[in-house]
Write a structure and sequence with these properties.
single chain; mainly beta; 9-stranded mixed β-sheet; 1 helix; 13 strands; Leu-rich_rpt_typical-subtyp
């Protein structure tokens, strides 16, 4: 008499909608390596080290889980409203983040604290009223077109960033210029509500020999201030700021 063959389990393979079978000998071996990465890389374009999530449909309202070793994230023109401490907690390899054109109104204070390799952060065209702590190696920060006022920017938030070279704070509601690091090359402060300057804003009022060699461009146009009334504020700069002088 012919021996009966052991029954086989039938499992539906959802990718092809056709049955596949396995033996009862042990658990099915599956590659779980990309379990967490797959959903993001279906919505977005994932290339080596880079994730592109731009104008995602259906609407993306939170930062998606990122593949490990992601260095560059571009999640522009979505509906993200908040950045939490967990969003980038497992992606310490990030060097550039671009979240332009979202609806971000809140960033938890430690959201970028673990990103010790982050060099470029772009948060332009959002709804920010407050800036979080910034990573020490940051070289470029763009927060143009937000709702920032001076009370939402900590006094020494930029002063401690000794690698910061490009700072874009235009089209906000700032009433004063925060202390700026020596490393700055370009600072844009146009279209704010800045009404006054001091001799120490860019220069050192007690040192007439001081020259700010790194600074190449300052934009103050579109503010309710007449720059000609503050000549000592620019005496250390190699080029006069853009703005109203009459």
């Amino acid at each position: 008499m012919e021996a009966k063959k052991p029954k086989k389990k039938v499992i539906l393979n959802t990718d092809y909608e056709s049955p596949t079978d396995t033996d009862d000998d042990g658990p099915i071996e599956a590659d779980h390596k990309d379990d967490k990465e797959l959903p993001t890389c279906l919505m977005c374009v994932c290339l080596t080290g880079s994730v592109y999530c731009e104008e995602v449909s259906p609407d993306m309202t939170t930062v998606p889980p990122l593949p490990k070793e992601t260095a560059y994230l571009y999640a522009r023109f979505n509906k993200i409203t908040k950045i939490t401490n967990k969003d980038f907690g497992d992606t310490a390899t990030l060097k550039r983040i671009d979240l332009s054109g979202n609806l971000i109104s809140e960033i938890e204070d430690g959201a970028f604290s673990k990103l010790d390799q982050l060099e470029e952060l772009t948060l332009a065209m959002n709804k920010l009223v407050k800036l979080p702590m910034l990573p020490a190696k940051l070289m470029s920060l763009n927060v143009n077109h937000n709702l920032l006022r001076t009370k939402g920017v900590k006094a020494n938030i930029f002063k401690k960033l000794n690698k910061l070279a490009y700072l874009y704070l235009g089209d906000n509601g700032l009433e004063a210029i925060p202390p700026l690091p020596e490393s700055l090359r370009v600072v844009h402060l146009h279209n704010n509500n800045i009404t006054s300057l001091t001799d120490d804003t860019f220069c050192k009022g007690n040192n007439t020999h001081y020259i700010r060699y790194n600074m190449q461009e300052v934009r103050l146009d579109g503010n309710p201030i007449t720059l000609a009334q503050h000549p000592n504020s620019f005496i250390c700069l190699r080029a006069l700021p853009f703005g109203h002088y009459k």
